[in-house]
Amino acid sequence: MRAWVLLSAVLWYLTGAGGRRSSERTSKGFIYGKPGHPVKLYVKLHHHSPVLVCMDFRRAKKETVDPTYIWIGPNEKPLTGNNQINITKTGKLMVKDFLEALSGLYTCTLSYKTVKAETQEETTVKQRYDFMIFVNPFAPGWKGACNDSADCEDITNHNILQARDRIEEFFRSQAYIYYHDFNKTIPAMHFVDHSFQVVRMDSCRPGFGKNEGLHSNCASCCVACSPGTFSPDVDVTCQNCVSVRIYGAKSCT
Questions:
Q1: What does the pLDDT look like over 214-241, one tens digit per residue?
Q2: Cys staple from 140: which of 18, 166, 193, 196, with CB 3.0 to 4.6 Å?
């Protein structure tokens, strides 16, 4: 008789892919935009976003005369600095304590002047930069950020694997004793070699899901469900719902 043991806990897994291939990132962690190409970013839930620069990397290396910056948030309204949105005078933006509702398109318009050397004529140039920010509860770097968390998936995974090893060792010890002591009766439930396994349960928390088409550069990430979709349970995908207008919806209302 085989004794099958199934650990039905969720084993969260995330590759090291960061989803920043479409942007320029400096050693300071600044994320620059690219003209005509939205930059996708995945921010860990309840953590700060990277510093977004309202400029492309090439422009940043040149002299920019009288620059001005206008940031527009996901609600299509101008952003101003507050206790959660930090905007510097040089056009850098950072969102603190990122939540599902803060996901979406962040647009910055850079305006600056160019001067013709021959005529000293000034011309105002405008350039738009788009940043698509999504919430991912376990974005790259989460292992180092949740050491003090009692609900940390790293700790959970370790405990589950430790439980697996102890259960396996129990059955192996039991099998050794009974196979080497012929006077004992083999119990009805005993260990058979290669009959023990741990099954990885792929899932996302409610309000999150995986979408390889939309998030091809972070396909294994559980990302907040986009408007028009929701996830009420720990399923891997978000379901369609035309009435949903927010990110991270857990119900179709």
A1: 888 788 888 999 999 999 988 889 999 9
A2: 18
